[in-house]
Every structure is written in C-alpha cells, then in structure tokens.
Amino acid sequence: MINKFCKKPLWEVSQTLSAVAGGAKPAETVIKNAKLINVCTREIQDNIDVAIAEGRIALVGDASHCIGETTNVIDANGSYIAPGFLDGHIHVESSMLTAGEYAKAVVPHGTTGIYMDPHEICNVLGLDGVKCMLEDAGRTPLKAMLTTPSCVPAVPGFEDTGAFIGPEEVAETMTWDECVGLGEMMNFPGILGSTDHAHGITGATLQAGKIVTGHYSLPETGQGLNAYIASGVRCCHESTREEDALAKMRLGMYALLREGSAWHDLKEVSKAITNHEVDSRFACLISDDTHPHTLIENGHLDHIVKRAIEEGIDPVTAIQMVTINCAQCFQMDHDFGSITPGKCADIVFLSDLEKVTVSKVMIDGDVVAENNQMLEEFAPYTYPDWATHSIHLKEEITENSFKIKARDVSAKEALVHAIEVIPARVGSYDRHVKLPVVNGYVESDVTQDVLKTAVFERHHETGNVGYGFVKGFGINKGALASTVAHDAHNLLVLGTNDADMALAANTLVESGGGMVAVADGKVLGHVPLPIAGLMNDLPVQEMSKLVEGLENAWAEIGCNMPSPFMTMALIALACLPELRLTDKGLVDCTTFQFTDLFIKG
Amino acid sequence: MINKFCKKPLWEVSQTLSAVAGGAKPAETVIKNAKLINVCTREIQDNIDVAIAEGRIALVGDASHCIGETTNVIDANGSYIAPGFLDGHIHVESSMLTAGEYAKAVVPHGTTGIYMDPHEICNVLGLDGVKCMLEDAGRTPLKAMLTTPSCVPAVPGFEDTGAFIGPEEVAETMTWDECVGLGEMMNFPGILGSTDHAHGITGATLQAGKIVTGHYSLPETGQGLNAYIASGVRCCHESTREEDALAKMRLGMYALLREGSAWHDLKEVSKAITNHEVDSRFACLISDDTHPHTLIENGHLDHIVKRAIEEGIDPVTAIQMVTINCAQCFQMDHDFGSITPGKCADIVFLSDLEKVTVSKVMIDGDVVAENNQMLEEFAPYTYPDWATHSIHLKEEITENSFKIKARDVSAKEALVHAIEVIPARVGSYDRHVKLPVVNGYVESDVTQDVLKTAVFERHHETGNVGYGFVKGFGINKGALASTVAHDAHNLLVLGTNDADMALAANTLVESGGGMVAVADGKVLGHVPLPIAGLMNDLPVQEMSKLVEGLENAWAEIGCNMPSPFMTMALIALACLPELRLTDKGLVDCTTFQFTDLFIKG
Predict the structure, then answer these.
(1) Cβ-defined contact of A252 to B22 (cutoff 8 Å)
(2) I need a labelling partner for B554 at 20 to 30 A (CA). Which of A397, B98, B128, B282 fits?
(3) Distance of alpha carbon B525 from alpha carbon B553, whole angstroms
C-alpha cells in the first residue's frame, strides 16, 4: 500500500538515504546515544544513533560518519527511543476537539499516527464533512489516516441521518490518498446474514487492497465470529473478556485492546496475553473514544501502554502493540512502526520506560513536541459555514413542541414505556411506568425519576420528532439537551418541564449544537459544539473546563452519574438493547421494530 | 496487495463464506479432528475442524454445523495441520526442471507457494521467457509468485546476455498479475553507490506498492547494510553468519535463512534465533537453489523446517518461518500464511511434527498431493520453439575454435592468469601459471591441473569468445561444457584437448543446451537442457538420474569435487571474486576491469 503520510515517498529519496548511510552525504539530523526499543526483535539496544534525511531514517547504529557541518545533532543522553505510537482505532469527534486541536493534544504524548473513523461527522455532514476533517488534520504533523465510516446510518430505517454511505460511497473514498481502509464494520448482523449491502461495503474495501476494520461486540466466539472474520474483517476493538481477545488472535484477527475514557477493557483483555504463552503480534492497544479530560489528565497511548505494563505486559511487548503490530495490521509496516532504515523518522523519546514518560516527539524527522507541548505551529483551519450551521429544523421549538398527548385525554394516568439508563453501561431497560396526565398531556414525574424526552430531526427539516420517556438520571429539575446523540446526532432533549426543555433546545440551536443543562429558565452549563454539532475548535484545556462545567450543572440538578452526558448520548442509538428513542419514534431493540409509546392498560 | 493466487478473490465469495460459517449453507469440505499449528498465536490447538468453501476457509473450530449432504469430510484423525509452506526465495531453474515438473516435485512436500526469481531464464530469453515460466507454473496448483529479475545482466558491460532489464522493464512487470515484487537485488554496489539505475529498479517496485527482495552478501553489517536497507529492500537470503541474520532482523529486514542444495547456512544462521531471546517474526526459511537429487532425497521446505528444528528452533516457531512470517514479509498475509477464516485453504497435513512428515497437501481447498505423490493432473506445457532453440552462435565450433595464440609464438612457455576454483565455495583465486606453447598456441597442462577454457556468446550471434584457463578441477582427460553458466548462460567449455572440447560444445549445440562431459571422442555424461539451455521437461526422478550420470562422468575423468558442474557454472559470474571469464574476456573482479590473459614476463 502506498500512502501520503510521509514527507516524501521512499522511492524519491532512497538515493539520498543510501548516500547518507554510507557517509557520502551528511545527515540532516542525527540522534546520538539512545537506548533503542527494538520492536522488530523485542530487545533494548544500548548506545544507538539514528541518522535521518528527507524525513526518513537512513541508518541505525553508529552514525558518527553521518554528521556533517550542517547536521542537527540531538543527544538522547541515554534515554529510550521508540517508534512513533499508532492508534489503530479512534473517533476524533469523541474528544469534541477539531482534528487540529486533537493533534495538539495527543502528539506530545507520543502519538504520531491515528487510524480515524470519523463516523460521527459523517452521519451529520456526509463525506463532505469527512473531507473537512481530513483537511484540518492534514495541516498537522499527526498522521491522520482515514478509515471510511461503514455504517451511516447505524440502523437504517430507524432514524434520519444527514447522510448515507453504501458500497458506492465506500468505493469512492478508497480512491482517496488519505484513505487506508474501512471504519469499524458495526453491521455484523449484515455480515453474518450475508447481505449484499454489508458485503458490498467490505468488498469494495478489499477490492481496493485496503483494510477492513471491525466491531464484533457479541460474546460469541464460534460460528458468528468465524462468519464475521471470513468476510475479510482484519481487526476488532470490541473485546471485553480475556476469551474474546484470545479467540480473535487465534483466528488471525488483530485484537485491538481498548482503554478509552469510558471503556476500561484492559484489565480484563490484557489477560489474553498475560495468562497465555502466546505470540502477541496480533494484539494492539487502542483508545477508541477519549474525552478532553482524559487527554489532559492521563494522556493518550502513553497512558494506555503504561496501563498495559501495569497489567503485567512486558514494556517492549506493550510498545510493539502500538507500533509494529499496528503497522502490520494495516500493512503499512514498510513506512511506519519501527526505527529501521527507510522508514519515516517518527520517533518518541522516553525518559522512563515503565512509566512511559514522553519527553520529545519527532515526526518525519522534525521534533514537533517537547515536554508535553506541541512545538510546531500550523495554520488554523476554518470549517465552512455549512459545517458550522448544521441544525436544520422544520419548525421553531417552543414549549408546545414538547407536549405529549395522552391516548385517553380524560384519564389521570397513562401507562407508557420508559428507557431506563444504566450508569457507565451502554445497555438500557424497557420499563413500564404510570405517568400523570395533565390537561390531556403526559408529564414527567421526578418522583419516579422519569423525564419526558424528545428527538428532533435536525438534518433535512423533515419535522420528524420522536417522543418518549427516560428513567434513571436522578434529575429533579430543569432540562438537558444534546446534539451529540449517537449515531444520527439529532437534537435530543429531556427534562422536567416544557419551558426548560425549550430553553435547552434553543440554546443549542443558537450555538449551532452542543450539550447543555438548564434549570428554572437559566443555562447552568453549556458546551457549544458548533462544528457539525459535535466539535469545537477550542484547545483541549478550554474544552475540558467547559465539560467540567457541564458535569457540575448535571450534579446541580440532581444527577451524580459519572459523565452522564455520555449515557444520555446513547439514548438514540437504536442498535443497543433494550429500548431506544429516535426521531422516528420508540424502537424495541430486541425485535428491531418500532413500538408504541403507550401500553394498552 | 491484490493477487491472482487464489481460486476467487475474497470479495467475490465472502457472502458464501459467512453463510457457511454460520451454518446457512453447507461447506464444500470439512477437515475434522485435527491438531492445528496456530501460527498466529504460536500454539497447538487440539480437536480443531476447518470448514472450506470456494477454495477458502470459512470457519476454524467446531464445524459440525457446516456439514451437509454434499460436504466432503476429511477426517484428520488427530494429525497436525499447518498452513501451506511458502518459500520466500527460489530459482526454479536451479532444479533444471520446468515450473510444472518443479511443482510436482515440491507440492507433495508441503510447499504451496513460492516467490520465484526466474533470473536464469530472463538472462537468456528476457521477459518473454519469464512469461513462459509463468504460463507453465500457472497450470499447476503451486502458487508461483513472480519477483522480477532485477540484475539482467548481472554485471553490465562485462558480458553479453540475451536480455536487459532496467527500470522501465521492471515497471512493466509490476503491472502483471503474477508479479508481487522484485527479485534479489544483487546490485548492492549500485544501491550503496546511489546509482540511478539501481535505485530506479527498486523505486519502480516500491512505487507499484510491491516488495523489493534483496541479496546483500557482504559480511559488513554497519554502514553498508544500512545503506542497502534504506533503499527499501525488505528481505535478504545471503546471511551466512549468526551476526548477519541478527543484524538484518534488528534493522527490520526479513532474514531469509537458507538451506539449499549447495548452501547449508542453517547450522550457523539459526543461532540468530537460538542464541538470542528475540522475536522471530522477521525470520523465514528458504531454499534459494535446489537440485533434483535434493528434492528427491530430502524434500523441500519440509526438510528445511526439520533442519531448523534440529538446530534447536521450536517446531511451531519453525513453521511460522515458512508461513505467517513469509506472508507478512510479502504483505500477503490477508490471503496466505495462516489457517484462519477468509484465507485460501492451503493446508499441509503432518503425521509427525518433529520430523515434519507431510502426509497430505491441500491447495485452495482441493487435496492435490498425498503420500508424497501429486494427485492433481494438469495439462502439459510446451515451450515454444524460440525457447527450446536458444543457442545462437555466429560460427560453427570446431577444434580451431579453441586455439589460443601465444603472444610470443616462438616461445616455449607463456605466463598467464588462471582462475583457481575452490571446492564447494563460490570464490576463486587469480593464479599466475606457466603453460606450454605448442606451434604458437598455449595449451592445457594436466600436470598443473590447468585447463583451457572458452566462453562463446550464444544469444545474439555476435561471435564473441572469451579465452582463459581454469585450475583446480583435477581433470586429467576429456572436456566439459555447459550452457548453465551464471548469469549470462553463454556456452562455457573447458578441457584437456581441442577435439574433446569441440565435441562437448557441439553435443550441447545439438541438444539445445545442457551440461556434458566427454573424453576420447565419446560422450560420458550428458544432461540435455533444451529449454533456454537451462531446463528440461523430464520429471525430477529422471533428471536426478541424468545428473547422477554426469557426476559419475566427471569422476571418471578425474574430478572428485561434490557437484563440480555447480562450481564450473560460476566461472563466468563476474561479480564474484577474484577472477572470472566471460564471452568478452577475462575480468579482474577486484578492480572490475578487463584484464589481459597474458602476464608480462
């Protein structure tokens, strides 16, 4: 596979590299006296120099003869050097940061390449939105490699999204330079059911000679997993148990072991390595979803490698899992993943191996970050108007928009379905609750912890609104709204009263999207996300503060869940059990059928 | 990388595979109750079934539900199954067999794929000859993947070959379906010297996204090796010492550990694995050159794996070296190299693991060999007339063709350079010897073990003849001739007298090439090689007998060297030290200059 993620392709500079290695030309940069984390042989080599020219490595060993008058010599002073860290599966949008700000947040932690699946923006803005993110990322030193979103919409027929991706769209993106594969194929039912649509999407990727990445979240590791892998899916980040990850590796699937902000899988899944004497070449470490707070407090892949070491994985083996293993998974090991001649000079300096303390980061031969700070400046990127004005409602939202007419308007109570959320879990329960009917309308009931909920279609002005009830947040006043509402990212509102719900919704309409908490006619916390209703171009520190403010606001109105807005954002995701609400209505996710809000009494 | 080495590409059959794995369609074939050599995790798994459809693996595990009325069930009875063996570097012509007969000889030994560098036929017949070999191989189940010959001629300017390969020719072959990379880049001086020609050839390969295979035979593992690898060369089979192989793996180069008929490197180079606690993923086992006798007596990769085990490498690790490691080297691990869902059903059954006893071989889901016999029939291939009539001399060869006029025709002796060969070594010495002058012509002198030698250009009727002397074979009568004379494969003749030399030469002219030993006007041993003067379409057993006859003939006239025709075949190879003879004359291979036969007295 050929890619654009280098200063120059090897065939344009190989003559220079050979000349530098042989001493016929001085190197541009020489790193002296390092301890090399050799991910090829799983060794640590002392007293190693690296000679660099044209953004690539010319020589590894003794580079004394490569130093000329013009050579920039970096004395590593015996510190460790490792290949640049690669994240095999990441959604930048989860950080709420733009690609540019995301790069500033993660590169100082040693991340030099990410395989990003921008399926959030794609649900809102389609491939044009994806192109914006690629342009944004393209200005930065971070190598942001596209895996084309495969499941847009996530649950076809049950929700309105801003875009549709089918085999033809996938095939088109496979011609893009930035595209190295297909994003997580969440439609495993389609693969297992041998549908033309699902296999058309994976097939278009395979036919282009690119990599299909997976998402197989069933606990079953027999027929289903085999059927899934047989379609050509090469990796999967959805293992949550030791046996999941082990089964995948045994079946030749790269097990991408996840440690994200919300999903802490490593404790369990690392046992696939530590409890078994296995070749670990099919294991990688990835983040999937990372929030601003996590990036600031813990870091990125440096933190995940450290966590793997804490779980008992040998440090060099753990580093293989974010370097050579990941590069081999994507068949890009000829350009990345090791500190060896010919490869891009993507190098992480570590002052402490066990703690994975990153002191300096080099990409394509340039030092781009040092002491946790990005050094390299790059031009700001302005998202176009259509990307920052992505809320397209048919009608203005008012208090009346939230009225749910009872089936029997003369009754005092109505028996309805309510979605009960579960703290820090992705599932939900389908509960039957009796709610008060006032003037013919069904109302929220904080005594039962049940809130009125609405999902407004916001992409194509269809006017679709889905109504339902949610239980379990502990909210006792006010309302909440979010345009981060997986995966269609329609406008989701829930609350105790119609006035606050309208205020919450309209606050987001004004800010072009985001997440908000209001009470008693006042905005308590607000994270504006004007870019596609998903991202903001503020730096990570400021975003982290805004999110903290929002969490405090949630607490103020009664919710003590960790990151409750994450749990809220899944209310509309109709591929998760048991009951969900989309702009098209209430979905029974066990039978995959729409269901009436009212239960016959 | 996409390739044609499968029944059908995965994207055409993935729906069927998923259906079979899920039990919705019956498998075509199910292997039951095997011990799986899992090369992904380096484990042995008991009681494993494999379900197969469309030539690919649908499921690995319990396949009971995949068996229908039409399913062919193969009971493995607890024997081992391993992925089909892959030879990462092989010259089919060394076996003197056609590609078809070669396939019959190696497939029963578990070899399902070879990365072949047909640089012998290419020197004689150019890319048209290569195409013939591909067509021949293409009829067989053996997956014969082309690495385009990179160095034709081997030593430009010093010899006449039948063809020339430059960057443009390489680029053309990179568009061929059968081509997966570049053959051994022997021109390491060109790479180290950063020449346009050498880097143009490697660059054309890299630009096509294909693999550059190497040949770095220097004992130096510092600047030179780095300069070589920096050009993008991905593997090398020329390690002869522990430290060579280790240095290559550390620099991210696949070390192809060789055990050929003539080169027994494993004893030494396997120490790179056994003496160091290294990740062995960058090590492969390969054969390079294998003679008919070796194929019959020892086998092919089965023998080499056994040898690796004898040298102390763990059996499963050794099998990784002919399966997943090789497939990853060529970035073809999505199709080959493991028994996992989606991959081609290339499977070797082993009745004994330590002895690597192959009992059955499956390729693309079909059992093609059993009990050391090829089962599958395939159509015979007839090489075209121009391929079987490749000897094009300007003039008929007679006794007079061998007369070497003395510089001083009146002298009784002449001081000349002689090439001294070294048994079972590729090098030679430049010796100064005094030879008798009779009637003004310099003659052979068996008392000094010095034979007159001539190389006739045989490709383009140029009439070029190079004359010299060779020392060291121990021949006391008769003459020898060969059209296997690396790498230009001109007609090489040496002998004690002109009459026998003419007989030897003309015997080969008549048979369209080959190797012959004559004495006293009689042919003692003759291996006709009518295809390009290099190969014969006889089966391996018959070829082995002919070669044995030739070896006996050599012994009869005084030479007790092992495989002396091999040593003879290197006399014309002007890239080896110290002195060589081509059709253009005597070459000093230390200065790379032509040198006069006569030494000023």
Answers:
(1) no
(2) B98
(3) 5
Burial class (CB in 10 A: 0-12, 13-18, 19+), B351: middle
Q: Are strands B491-495 and B450-456 parallel, antiparallel or unpaired?
A: antiparallel
pLDDT tens digits, one per residue of B214-273: 999 889 999 999 999 999 999 999 999 999 999 999 999 999 999 998 888 999 999 999
Task: For residue A344, give the 3-state DSSP assignment.
Answer: strand
Return the residue in A218, A223, A277 with the most chain B beta carbons within 10 A, the one to mutate for interface testing.
A223
A564: nearest Cα among A476, A488, A480: A480
pLDDT at B104: 97
pLDDT at B262: 81
Contact list in B for residue A333 (CB cut-off 8 A) is: 331
pLDDT for position A562: 85
**pLDDT(A462) > 80:** yes
Question: Would you call A224 and B22 a contact, using CB atoms and an 8 Å cutoff?
Answer: yes
Chain B residues within 8 A of A252 when measuring between CB atoms: 40, 338, 340-343
Of B250, B282, B341, the CB nearest to A226: B341
- CA-based nearest distance B109→chain A, Å: 25
A22 interaction partners in chain B (CB closer than 8 Å): 192, 194, 223-224, 227
CA distances from residue A198 to A169, A184, A239 in whole angstroms, order as listed:
13, 12, 21
Query: Backbone phi, then psi, for B224, in 5-degree steps?
Result: -65, -50
pLDDT tier at A379, thresholds 50, 70, 90: confident
Contact flag B207-A252 (C-beta cutoff 8 Å): no
Cβ contact, residue pair B252, A43, below 8 Å: no
What is the per-residue pLDDT across B417-461, written as a single tens digit (0 to 9) for each? 999 999 877 889 999 999 999 999 999 999 999 999 999 999 999
> Cα separation of B595 and B601, whole Å?
15
- Say yes or no to pLDDT of B587 above 90: yes
The CA distance from A68 to the nearest CA of chain B, in Å, is 16
What's the rounded Cα separation, in Å, for the pair B567 and B561? 9
Amino acid at A135: E
Computed over every residue of chain B, the mean pLDDT equals 96
Question: Given pLDDT bands bounded at 50, 70 and 90, which one contains residue A110?
Answer: very high
Question: Apex CA B316: angle with CA B315 and CA B321, to 5°?
Answer: 95
ipTM of the complex: 0.96
Do A230 and B196 make contact, defined as CB atoms within 8 angstroms? no
State which amino acid sits at residue A279: D
For residue A331, give the chain B residue with the closest CA: B331
Which residues in A lie closer than 8 A to residue B21 (C-beta atoms)? 223, 226-227, 230
CA distance linking residue A474 with residue A490, whole number of Å? 23
Tell me which residue has tokens 């060993």.
Answer: A61
Confidence of residue B169 (pLDDT cuts 50, 70, 90): very high
Average pLDDT over residues A343-350: 98
Percent of all residues in chain A with a pLDDT value above 90, rounded to a whole number: 93
Distance CA B478, CA A295 (A): 83
Write out chain A residues lying below 8 Å of B224, CB-based. Answer: 22
Residues 6+ apart with CB under 8 A from A178: A4, A134, A138, A144, A145, A146
Scanning the structure block, which residue is given the tokens 């055409």?
A: B12
pLDDT at A123 over 60: yes
pLDDT of A171 higher than 60: yes
A180 contacts in chain B (CB < 8 Å): none
Q: For A158-253, where are the alpha helices, taking DSSP H only?
A: 167-173, 188-192, 196-207, 223-230, 242-250
B253–A15 CB contact, under 8 Å: no
- Any residues with CB less than 8 A from the CB of A597 and at least 6 apart, and which? A404, A416, A417, A467, A468, A469, A585, A586
Q: Give the number of other Cβ atoms within 10 Å of residue A318's Cβ.
A: 27
